Amino acid sequence: MSEVIAVTGAGGRIGGRVARRLAEQGAAVRLLGRDPARLPRIAGSSLAPGAPYGDGEAMRGACEGTGTLFLVSAHEARDRVREHTTAVDAAVAAGVGRIVYVSFLGASPDATFTFARDHWHTEEHIRASGVRYTFLRDSFYLLALASMAGADGVIRGPAGEGRVSAVAHDDIADSAVSVLLGEGHDGRTYDITGPAALSLTEVAAELSRVTGRTVGYENETRQQAYASRAGYGAEDWEVTGWVTSYEAIANGEMAEVSDAVPELTGRIAQGLARYLAENPDAYRHLTP
Question: What fold does the segment set 4-138+168-192 form as a domain?
Answer without folding.
Answer: Rossmann fold (3.40.50)
